[in-house]
Request: fold
Amino acid sequence: MENVALVAITKHGVELIRNLQQDMPKASLHYMSKFEVGDEADRNIQTFEGSVRLLLPELFQQYDGIVMVISLGAVVRMIAPILKDKKTDPAVVVIDDKGQFVISVLSGHIGGANELTKQLAFYLDAIPVITTASDVQKTIPVDIFGRELGWTVEDYTYVTPVSAAVVNEEPVAIIQESGESNWWKHKKPLPRHMNVFSSLQEGLQEPFSAALVITHRDLSVDEKKQLEGKAVLYRPKSIMIGMGCNRGTSAEEIEEVITSTLQELQFSISSVSGIATIDLKKDESGLLEVVNKYNWEFICYSADELNHVPIKNPSNTVFKYTGAYGVSEPAAMLAAGTDTLVLEKRKSGNVTISIAIKKG
Reply:
């Protein structure tokens, strides 16, 4: 985390955060003006007078993380009136005046306070204090499961009861139909109360108190009913769209083909990783507009690269204009790292689309 404010109100606290700035050069320092030493303007350090409480609402808006060398009780009382939501509040970390302990106070998982705590403890040779149960037990943090892999949570409604089931060692089904398989980060084996299934159909056959479902599919009404109240759905970035289009095709037409195709396949647009095509289309404005709108990858291959991928539907006409015997099919397979397609090339107006699912 780089967008961090370091705050102190005591002499020793000021010394501590000034030293921390050597390890965190992008951090912003804030301390009381009575402790100025004369180099604040050169180091872009902000000073203030009066209560630090008045500064906090602005810091909450500006920074992803706030580190305060202030007593824990005082920090809790000061931040309580300005807290909003665990998904939007910044990480808050407290350090004692001697720099012996670094305490994760707020937004430990989603906000990143736990990781910031470990980072600061390393810099200070201090003891990190983290009380989040899943971190202490070294199990799955439900609210950020797979985040470092690009996974997103579809709906946070049942994160709390599912988290409780995980840390209380109740039977948990981990149902993974797609996405990266290297999500278990600990050296110890997966806990015995957790069972992994490769399909939702398989997982639903066994009893469980909670489920973590990783899939690119839109769930059926019946599946949703069986999971209601006890599951969290994760969207891995598993879908690669191979695409060819005529020059000048509008972004609206491209987007409509993508959304209607995904809807037909019952795939979630939240699991799209990107669009792959031939390098002749690297400046195609319609494609660029769509990938920018959804923040997708945009991967371009040379004709030679595409021709090295065996495809079922080679086209001499496509070769005549592009030098490749196919665009959407080989591009999708190359980008997904697979030799199979879930959708072979389909022509729709000015657009040709193919879809592949990344290997885990």
Observations:
- The CA atoms of residues 104 and 188 lie 24 Å apart.
- The chain has a mean pLDDT of 93.
- The domain at 239-357 is CATH 3.30.420.180 (Nucleotidyltransferase; domain 5).
- The first strand starts at residue 4 and ends at 8.
